[in-house]
Amino acid sequence: MPEKNSANPIEVRINAAKIGFGDWTLFDSLDLTLAAGKWTCMLGTSGVGKTTLLRLIAGLSSDNSDIDVQCGDNLPLAGRAAYMAQQDLLLPWLPVIDNVMLGARLRGELTRSGQLRERAIGLLSAVGLEASLGDIPAKLSGGMRQRAALARTLLEDRPVVLMDEPFSALDAITRIKLQELAAELLADKTVLLVTHDPMEALRLGHRIHVMSGRPARLEGSIKLAGSPLRAVHDPVVLEGQADLLERLSGAEADAEAGAP
């Protein structure tokens, strides 16, 4: 199993996040705190702004947006966050192993290529792709491509990890296995996970938020008892699903009421 970084985790505070498109405000004055070394999960209806907020935190800002991101150690977040998008974003002409090491290549870190390659191979083995190191993405299924993208994110080894539905393309069994792997390898990281799956949030999260409304807001958070990774039959998971589904149903009703 690949080794984990022992760097101290950091708290991240998002203050007054705002983005609009013309006369339409997606969200305004939105605040969120990511506890150091914990998993924060965010759910909500499609189009409510979860991915947009994640991109703003990652520094992928756009016109008509504003956000204040502060870290608990008073250092900038820039360069210390790994971002895993919904799409795998693998380069079609590169073998899987080179796709996983792409960040290091772009940063000119290939002087450590032997060490990095060894870690990359370990991660690909951990996600079940040890036989596909030399394959180009076109030879992989959608789920395999998503697993390669997860390995690439883990290889970055950043103290903050922003994940946008990282397991959405996987079958149920593979999804559970990769949740277990991510929980283990990101146990010392500050993680923000966007997901549509209440069970996933309940298994992995320390705290859960539901985004709803237009402009979007974050409902009162759910702080979960115990620690991840929770079993699928854990009472916290089983009992929490009904509450989350009710909140999501209310969020969907809010979205429909606010639709133009």
Q: Distance between termini?
A: 50 Å
Strand content: 15-25%
Number of strands: 10
> Judging from the principal axes of the Cα atoms, what is the shape?
globular
Helix content: 25-40%
Unreliable sequence segments = none
The profile of the biggest β sheet is: 7 strands, mixed
Q: How many helical elements?
A: 8
Mean pLDDT: 86
Order of helices and strands: EEEHEEHHHHEHEHEEEH
Radius of gyration: 18 Å
Tell me the structural class: alpha/beta
Describe the structure concisely for a colleague.
With 260 residues, this protein is α/β, with parallel strands linked by helices. It has helices at 50-57, 96-100, 102-106, 113-126, 142-156, 172-185, 198-204, 235-258; strands spanning 12-21, 24-34, 39-44, 65-71, 81-84, 160-164, 190-194, 207-212, 217-218, 222-223.
Description:
With 260 residues, the chain is α/β, with parallel strands linked by helices. Helix content is 35%, strand content 22%. The chain contains 8 helices and 10 strands. Strands 3, 5, 6, 7, 8, 9 and 10 form a 7-stranded mixed beta sheet that branches. It has a 3-stranded antiparallel beta sheet with strand order 2-1-4, covered by helices on one side. A hairpin with a 4-residue loop joins strand 8 and strand 9 (217-218). The longest helix has 24 residues, at 235-258. It is globular, with a radius of gyration of 18 Å. The model has no long low-confidence stretch (mean pLDDT 86).
